Amino acid sequence: MTLEEVVGSGSTETKMETESHALEELVVAAQRQDCLTAGVYESAKLMNVDPDSVVLCILATDEEDEDDIALQIHFTLLQAFCCDNDINIVRVSGMRRLAQLLNPDSEDGNGNEPRDLHCILVTNPPVQPFQCKALQDVSNFCKESRYRNQWVPSLELQDR
Question: Which end of the chain is more exposed for a tag (fewer CB within 10 A), N or C?
Answer without folding.
Answer: N
